[in-house]
Amino acid sequence: MQGAGRRNVFDGRDFRGRNQRAHQAARAVSKEQRQEIKEAFDIFDSERTGKMDYHELKVAVRAMGFEIKKPEALELMQRYDREETGYIGFEAFEEIMIQRYAAQDPMDEIRKAFELFDEDRRGRISFRNLKRIARELGEKLTDEELRGMIDEFDLDQDGDINEEEFISIMKQTSLY
Question: Which of 17, 29, 144, 149 makes the best surface tag, with the fewest CB within 10 Å?
């Protein structure tokens, strides 16, 4: 889950600083995220040429959950298509996506996740919301198990999980 208004981690002006920031950003990306990047590239490289054009880049970045506007996609193509072929390879795509992952604010991501659960926009995750999410994820949980999950983390004992309680859950389980 990713969002708009992200600044680029690399500005391309200082090559040594860029390499250092690239290395730091790459370390911040999980194995699962790297696998998602590879899978996205493979999906949008449908002809298996090992490269993607401007349109494929734009769609792939959006499919990964990040906002990208036409001018930004064009600027990225210009920056990474050093041979001016109209295409970028996997390494360039991976670097672009690593930058985006590294620029994420974990609290923003937690809030977006909360909003996905809070379908009726009441500022709380109800039993009904949790049951819907479990069903959509293919989890076979009984009503008793779902109520138990809410009871375990419902600090204010109102029967629902509010945003503060949700953030606490995410921090406790290191899922952010």
Answer: 144
Total residue length of the chain: 176
DSSP strands (E only) in the chain: 51-52, 88-89, 124-125, 161-162
pLDDT in tens, 49-94: 999 999 999 999 999 888 999 999 999 999 999 999 999 999 999 9
pTM of the model: 0.55
- Give the residue among 65, 55, 67, 95 at the shortest CA–CA distance from 4: 67
In this structure, which CATH number among 1.10.10.10, 3.40.1060.10, 3.40.462.10, 1.10.238.10 belongs to the domain 15-102?
A: 1.10.238.10
Output the six-digit token pair for 52. 């993607």
Q: Tens of pLDDT along 142-168?
A: 999 999 999 999 999 999 999 999 988
How far apart, in whole angstroms, are the C-alpha atoms of residue 108 and residue 20?
25
Question: What is the Cα–Cα distance from 34 to 141, expressed in whole angstroms?
Answer: 30
